[in-house]
Amino acid sequence: MASGADRISDLPEDVLHHVLSLLPSRDAVRTCVLAQRWRDLWRSVPAVRVAGARGWARADAFVLFVDRLLRLRRGRAALDTCDLDLRFDGPFPGGERHGNRWIRRALRRQVRVLRFLLSTVPRVPLPLPDSPLVSDSLTTLELKGVLGNNQVLDFSSCPSLVDLKMEDCYVGGLEMWSPTYLFNRDLKCCSTFSKLKNLVLNAWFVAPDISALTWFLQYAPLLERLTLKVSEVPNNLVETEGSYSQLEQSFAASHLQIVEIKCKEVHGIILKILEVLNANGIPLEKISIRCSGRASQKLLLTTALKLPITPD
Q: Which residue range or ranges hold the F-box domain (predicted)?
């Protein structure tokens, strides 16, 4: 480099795009001042990555940056990954208008991996439109801190969806861990998750009769990995006597490789979950429990069920 030659700028454009796609988008945009070759490269980088408003003088300046970042992309530049980790110490300025616009723009760019994670102080969820997401290319979706009606759970127009994670979301005016309402009104209206392979469910799936869990076992035929996070037991948990009968058409057992249950304490609901899994052809050998509760509870569960219990 003694001659002052800019060898990095001589690299093929797809190589430069790959390098920039590994950076936070704010840093990727800053490369526009390096040389003429770099001036517009950020506009076609295949990944958008933003993480919170910290480091910005004002939250609205951060929002303006993200808005322009998506709006000023080159006309036909495809977007492989859109990672929007939106953390605010206060409210989300213009939240509903901007948030929904960003999601729509990412989907129009044929995004494959979409993460929209919203965290505000105080916690205020982002209302989503009363229409389902539509994308032929979306394979991975992670949502946090959103609100909507039953359309939020309608992924019938996302035929390539493989990985789904929803956390701290609200459906039909209730948090997702108000499971009876969620399952009876919302999940039954959804079609089969024909390509879903990886699913993470938070505490909301623990319905009084665990019906949401049985629904996913029936309608996710290619599911390979299932993670269940049981943080608390609902007050309206129904005590069900006897064993659970097998679903009329349980597909999950044939492809499911691992079920990981994460809990703080060992409650009766854990045993009910195990009964449902076992009744639908999922052997105990495929089930792992990560428990952060008392050691005596872990020992009791390990002895009773002979399951691998991992301290969290």
A: 5-59
